[in-house]
Amino acid sequence: MTTMRYRLLGRSGVRVSELCLGTMMFGYPGLGVATAAEADGALKRFAEAGGNFLDTANRYAGGESERVVGELIKPDRDRWVLGTKYGLSSDPSDPNAGGTHRKSLRRAVEASLKRLGTDYLDLYWVHIWDGYTPIEEVVTALDDLVRSGKVLYLGISDTPAWLVSRAVTIAEERGLTPFSAIQIPYSLVERTVERELLPMAKALDLAVTGWAPLGGGLLTGRYGSDRERPADGRRAGSEISERELAIADALNAVADARGASASQVALAWLRAQQHRALTIPIVGIRNEAQLVDNLRLLDLEPEELRQLDEASALTPEFPHEFAGERYAHGDAVVEYHRR
Length: 339
Hints:
CATH class: Alpha Beta
Protein name: Aldo/keto reductase
Radius of gyration: 21 Å
Organism: Amycolatopsis albispora
GO molecular function: oxidoreductase activity
Number of domains: 1
Strand content: 5-15%
Keywords: Oxidoreductase
Distance between the termini: 64 Å
Number of helices: 12
Pfam family, one: Aldo_ket_red
């Protein structure tokens, strides 16, 4: 098990471990880390490796994830950089029990603080953009929480790049608290975020926390064109594309040559994407053994990265490739327009 390094959370000065422990499955009987004892063992393993960054949400396990996490970190609360989320509905019968508006925010943050047994949150995430609430209302309401001391830093999850950019710009122009991080799906099989979201994050100095870094189980070594498809996997019953199989094959080949697990290599590839934006994988676990495997951090060689990049490369898309070709020959384009 390798001791983790630390990274700054975006433009803030707070230090977070290079892996974030996702606790979505804490408190899910029969599905995940069901008991407090199991969760406690995983949390201790994570802390021993230098981990200090935790991710949960008010909707995970119906709020039970927050309760379990809060109880376990209570003896040393200030050691942890604790993040939770709001925005998804907690009561389908109430039209205001979800959404990103001020009323939902006030209700959600008070409930999360109570379940977590703390008087402040290190990082508070907008779970997903609701499409109705004005950006100005969200930015202003979140800034009020920071000024109240209940929240230290802000993040936003699963939201288009143009909306995040506008929110950050509004915050900067009005002297309000900007977002420090975004949370997005990012893995060898989900690289579309590299087109808009990652360049935006780098330009605005936002940390990127990547959920589903193992591609929903596809990058665990259980899948490949030469392997029988597991009947109990998360992808059971769902279609797997030829591209996904090719990526799994390339990953398995690198892992076999390294004598490492496919999961370790997949996480190593993601941690190597710092040139695109500051990237922190969120490691979600169902048992302690998975965490122990994921904590064996690897640094891949350039040739290994090249193999994985080639297998998972994105299809060219407008306007990036179009603009890139012309900017590469800028003088010729200028001369053409002068004629």
